[in-house]
Design goal:
Strand content: 15-25%
Strand order of the largest sheet: 1-2-3-4-5
Number of strands: 5
Shape: globular
Number of domains: 1
Largest sheet: 5 strands, antiparallel
Radius of gyration: 18 Å
Number of helices: 8
């Protein structure tokens, strides 16, 4: 069984993904291997992202762990003063899918799998675009009835959009919406700007807030 999963993943991860189904299939197989090898707790973020591609709403333990991690960064924000708010690096790493990239890269190295998806930036941009479309409007959501005070109740990817910037350049934009248990919202955008034929470093865009 393990050898069969490794063989399938080797085939898929050795080439750039061509469609959304490639990303779904690969991450489903990655999750099988994580479970078989007892690595789900070692690769918590990767496990969450693997689960997310096959659920229209993710409210299990992994979602709670991620939202709890983000709580410490977001729940103390004063949304009445958006000009003073600068979300920290952990939030940016999540909304940019950098955390997914790093754990997938580490997983491939540990399992001796091809690493094209994480080392070839053309392939990674394709992964980002496909993954964003797959989980679009599929919320991470939890209801912590015994939790006192403000907490992150829901996180949704609201927009994934490719926009032309110049004749040889385009950008990929992710816009996320956080909803707290008191009804307030927090929107965080992340933009990848890159030439159409090679990778350029990503940069964050503006944030928006709603109460």
């Amino acid at each position: 069984m393990r050898d069969a999963i490794i063989e399938k993943l080797t085939q898929f991860l050795a080439q750039s993904p061509r469609r959304e189904a490639d990303v779904v299939y690969a991450l489903v197989e990655v999750r099988k291997l994580l479970e078989r090898e007892g690595k789900k707790k070692v690769f918590k973020t990767l496990t969450l992202f693997c689960d997310w591609v096959v659920h229209v709403k993710l409210d299990r333990r992994g979602a709670d762990d991620i939202l709890t991690m983000l709580d410490a960064r977001l729940c103390t924000l004063d949304l009445s003063k958006p000009q003073d708010i600068t979300p920290d690096n952990v939030v940016r790493q999540f909304v940019s899918l950098y955390l997914l990239h790093e754990e997938l890269k580490r997983f491939c190295a540990e399992m001796k799998l091809p690493n094209r998806w994480t080392t070839d930036w053309q392939s990674w941009i394709r992964c980002l675009r496909f993954y964003g479309n797959i989980v679009l409007d599929c919320p991470l959501a939890v209801c912590r009835q015994d939790h006192k005070g403000k907490y992150t109740q829901k996180l949704v990817l609201k927009t994934t959009d490719v926009q032309p910037e110049a004749h040889d350049k385009e950008s990929l934009v992710f816009e996320w919406e956080f909803t707290f248990n008191d009804g307030t919202t927090f929107k965080q955008s992340h933009l990848y700007s890159y030439p159409t034929n090679k990778w350029n470093p990503s940069k964050p865009t503006t944030t928006e807030f709603g109460i």
